[in-house]
Amino acid sequence: MRPKFDLKSIPTGAYLVITVVLALLTVGLLLLLQNINERQREAQQASFQVVPLSEDVVDPAVWGQNYPYQYDNYKRTVDIQRTRYGGSEAFQRLDDDTRWRTIFHGYPFGVDYREERGHAYMLVDQRDTERVKQFKQPGACLHCHASVLPAYFQKGIEAGVPNDAAHRTEAIQKGFEIVNSMPYSVATQLVEHPITCNDCHTPETMQLRITRPGFLTGVNVLANSTDPVPHLPSIERWRAEGKKGTYDPNTMASRQEMRSFVCAQCHVEYYFKGTEKLLTYPWQNGLKVEQIEAYYNEVGWKDWTHKASGATVLKAQHPEFELWSQGVHARSGVACADCHMPYQRIGAVKVSDHHVRSPMLNINNACQTCHKFSESEMLARVTTIQDRTKILMTRAEESVVALIGDIEKAQAANAPADKLAAARDLQRKAQWRLDFIAAENSMGFHAPQEAARILAEAIDYARQGQLALAQ
Amino acid sequence: MTRQALSHPLLLALVLGLIGVLAGVGGYTFIYAKGYSYLSNDPQACANCHIMRGELDGWQKSSHHTVATCNDCHVPHAFIPKYLTKLENGYAHSRAFTFQDFHEPIEMRAQSRAIVLENCVECHREMVSPITASAGSFGHNALSAQVDCIQCHRAVGHGTLD
User: Fold this and answer.
1) What's the whole-model pTM score?
2) Least CB-CB distance to B14: which of A19, A35, A368?
3) Looking at this predicted complex, what is its ipTM?
């Protein structure tokens, strides 16, 4: 006989235990419910507008009240970290590789050539460089080192452009032209911040936008060239539709193109044209190294006369956009921001990482969204490309230095003028190509084969120059 | 003895009450979180947690979106393995999303990958039979170790990255 189950046989203690367990389970479920609720809220609204934003708000800290995640990351551009060949520590490249003193002889870069630090330092570092302190520089430099829009706008209004929204672009263009030719020491007093939120975003909608007059003009010049740009479909479309009016990235480019164009406002090759120091992007013939060189030759541009050899030479700036344009990532539709500002997950929201930096410091988010290999494998692949580029670059530097040495000797030996002229011309060609890859901030990664081709040409032209003297 | 007799109905009522509260809260949570939708084949259910939005968007632009939904590739086709996998995945995903401790970018686990590969073969059996024949058995590990369809055909499910 089984004894009949009797509720009374359950001890009071057991009831208490069951009660506590049930209560804890309920608490757990409520916590889960609350968590689900929070995640759903996060997905619905990624930001809360606590302050109104407009063109008049320049201070990124104010924007940061509405967009705290982005602002937190933006502030991190103060971080200083070396990568294999670059990074954000301001080491002196002239000491790191003394050949550059010879190559830049007679030019401000021969006095001070420090590695760039993060975005946060762009304005203080520009004010601090010996290139600005020891040499006279124009206000045009501010185009890319400061949140300069309010200053441009103000100067444009002062010059007579009507003060209303419809004339905003016109006022900025006018102010840009005025500030370009001001002395740097005067112009820099007009600005307060390094580039901030409003340089890339429309305050009311957060939409990406192009604000820089130099790029607006430059990209229209590029669109009007015959250089194929399959990685920029909106330009190809504009060309196919008969080149009507002006190519305007703000109204014609796709969002994905804008995620590169906002960077290309500054990470490009440029020069200061004429006495008015008009900041100009040399894209009349296209984006490739020899197309830019051809343009400089057509307009008779030189950055300086080499002090030792007498050659009229060019200085490459930081042609990241140009080199990226020749690479497989651009061709595949990968934008600058995909690798340099990859999405990161914060709670349930995806936020693009505003700590702009080398993807090698953030391989997981930067590479592995597309490439299903380990971080160490991705790093090894990039390192292979960069090491190979570096080997070629060192050869190219040696070649150019050797050519400069030969020209000096030939000058001392009173060599015929035509031989010297031929050698100097080849120095210009070789040096331009070497510098195009050296000044570009990826050690060849943005377009490895193109970088190798350019360096090979640099070596060849330099050695041709030596041969021209030896004949 | 008298004290115990008096307290039993009260204690029992308390416990039953708590069970009721638990069931109510649980049921509400289940419906609020659209738990029932996970029993369906609707791809939208997979994006209930917006974390899968990118994957859903990518699938809509992929070559397979006309012929295969999430479940066709990501869970076994047979009834019992299908719901066992849903159960296990449901637990693992909810736990990971609640505690936010998963790998970024999101990756398939080895077992999930094996299921996808099995399903490639399920539909493309005739086409791939020469390959699978030489790859040995159809056991999960044997297949995924030797022939990995999505190593090359990675864009078929979630749009192109290449």
Assistant:
1) 0.82
2) A19
3) 0.72
